[in-house]
Every structure is written in C-alpha cells, then in structure tokens.
Amino acid sequence: MQDTIAGDLYGFDAVPFDVTLLRLVSAVVLGACVGFEREWRAKPAGIKTHVLVSLAACLFILVGRELALIDYGGGEVRIQPFGLIEAVTAGVAFLAAGLIFRADGRVQNVTTGASLWLAGAIGLASGAGQVPLAALATALTLFVLLVLRLFDRPHAPRSD
Could you tell me the pTM of the whole model? Predict the structure, then answer.
C-alpha cells in the first residue's frame, strides 16, 4: 500500500521529471525575457508578473497531460481533463482580476493576481497526484517572488 501511495505522489507519467523541469525552467526564463522588457519600459506588469503567468500556463499544460492519463474507472464515466482546467482557471482568473485595480492612475496587485492564478495551477497539479510537479512550480514561484524582487525598480510604482 505504501508503494502505491508513493507511486501516486511522485510519479511523472506523461512527461519525465527531467523534461518537466526543463519545461518549467524554460517557462520561467522566457517569461522573464518578456517581463524584463516590460519592466524596462516601466509598465505595470513587469518581470515577476510575466514569469508567474508563463509558469502557470506551463503548469496547466503539464497537469493536463497528467490528468489525461488518469483512469477514472472506465464505463460511462467521461471526464474531460481540460474541462477541469478551464473551470479552475476561469474561476481563479475571476478572483485574480478582482484584486487588480487602479488607484491614483496606478495599476496595483498585478503580481498578486498572477500568483493567485499560479496557485490554482499548483492546486490542480496536487489534485492530479503530481506533487513533485506542484513542488517544483512552488519553488520556482518563490524564486520569482523573492529573488526577482531584487530587480524591481525602486522608483517605479509597485504592482503587487
């Protein structure tokens, strides 16, 4: 029984671990490239926001691939994995959008909205039994929020 639980928690069925890591890291790096340009031009959504959105989108795809492999018992039960993802992303995006507002001509809470959306992806990964995938995404998210903060412009309006 413990072997089954461990296999459920740490298995990467659709995409091997090394490929998963490469995909998540590439999402962070490439999202950072776009975000850096936005940060440089003093736009409200900068490097952290772009990285979080890119990472979340990558995670949603990886989770979708894993969900597609789950055996739901066969028979008449039909679950559309991407339908589950759409439901979660739509709901979380609605909540995240509610956090973003303009005050004194400044957009605020964009990074918080992006991190909330990413938390939804992490929850989907955990729910799909992809705890290592969720943990990797969480570690990269913390890196983005804590380490990339060093690159924030001190004079620019904060977007979180």
Answer: 0.66
